[in-house]
Specification:
Number of helices: 22
Order of helices and strands: HHEEEEHHEHHHHHHHHHHHHHHHHHH
Largest sheet: 5 strands, antiparallel
Distance between the termini: 25 Å
Number of strands: 5
Structural class: mainly alpha
Oligomer: single chain
Amino acid sequence: MRITASTPEEYLEQLPPERKEIMAALRRTILDHLPDGGIVEAMSYGMIGYVVPHSVYPAGYHCDPKLPLPFISIASQKNHIGLYHMGLYASPKMMEWFTTEFPRHSQRKLDMGKSCIRFKKAEHVPLQLIGELVGRMNSQQWIELYDWVLVWMTGLFFIWGFLTEMDGALIPFLKDLFELSNFQAALVQFAFFIAFFVVSFPAAGVLQKVGYRKGISLGLAVMAMGSFGFIAAGVYAEYGYFLIAIFALAAGVTLLQVAANPYMVALGGTGSGSNYLNTAQGFNALAKVLAPLFGAWAILEGMEDLDEAARLERLNEVYFWIGVLLSAAALLFWMVRLPEVIPTRAADRSDGNYRAHPHLLRGAVAIFLYVGVEVCVATFLILYLGDVRELSRADGAVYLSYYWGALMAGRLMIPLVLPKAPTHKVLLLFAIGASVCVAIAGFGTAAGAWALVAAGFFHSIMWGNIFALSLRDLGSLISKGSGLLVMAIVGGAILPPIQGLLADSVGRPRSYWMLLPAYLYLIWFAHSGHRIKPKAS
């Protein structure tokens, strides 16, 4: 049930008679039991909301700081009346109290989703219990709990961002250690990114059984196992074993992402959809900047002067301590009393299939190609700098840090500089800019190094803009559409080995020209491919 209203009174006026009375009573109950003046009534995501205003909590909502921090919302949906109480889902004690009290106030089975309580009929709404629920948490308690969860999850985003970008140092290290071809070296990215494609669906099934919080701990534990796998691979000194360890680590990262993103959506409010944590994503980007610098210092520095045994010993030591820290993080997340949210298995209410939304399918191709080109640029950047500027592997890693720094800068700057620019026009401009950078790099001049760094800036908004353009007007297919786009991350596994094959034939600089057709597709998608063209009936 979609209602357009600017005030709660307008919202109530537009309800059908059988819903108007109970919604008005629900609203009165909430207003009568709000414990302090730090929570105000407002329209929030098309619903009647009760939010912490910016005057009380200036940071705002993590998915969009321009919005006040949501706390409670009520809505008349198509098949139910929905009550969204974020404190209930964020406080284990409050959740335990509510689930214990509910049977005493209702003969109906409690129907709870990932972020709401659903009541099929007006007579099913236990107003007295809801009043008690509203009065159990004030604005300051909600802010403290919200900040507590946000700090922990920000650390989590930093961890997986850091471990993901350690591949930048691993590729030149393993290439030199085992005297690999470019194609063989690029299999590091294949082993890492194929995990997103292979593990995502099983991970969702695991989370269905254990919940998001325990799923986060499990993901960290699997990452630790992958890290310790580097030590076993070092004992055998076989490249294939390293690829297995990388896949295991990436499987943990996949489980972590599948758990952490919806976990924060469930705790963060009713309208976040596919938005990402601004703060946590900022730390994730910072981790990508720092990881190559750490890799340069801990793995690549002076490795040209070491024999094979010494190189393996250095790598083993680095990943041993990474494994120890990940194991400690897994134990900590298991023990700390963060809120628990159990995923619900939504019924399939799709209003069509993918073929009915061709712009979604074109968007999936765009995500595939975008992730592929982003990873390709990073994969061979250190090796490229050795070719065109004769830099050591450690010095080249500094430029890889610049690349991720440019990408982070773009993500932070563009929303401020171009806040109202049409999504497709920004994507078009940046796709053209990235293609020019890669074209310059293909000539193999010293300027190509900075051109590839600049490509990071132009890549910055592509993921979010392609996602936004692809998910428009999908209706109830939006969850499946989002899943399809996430699966397209497999482009990061496919394109780097192809570029590696080409680099073995024509050289690394000119192999970058292979990416130009992908950018041309992104340019076309931004210009016209994103347009929605409904099928004729």
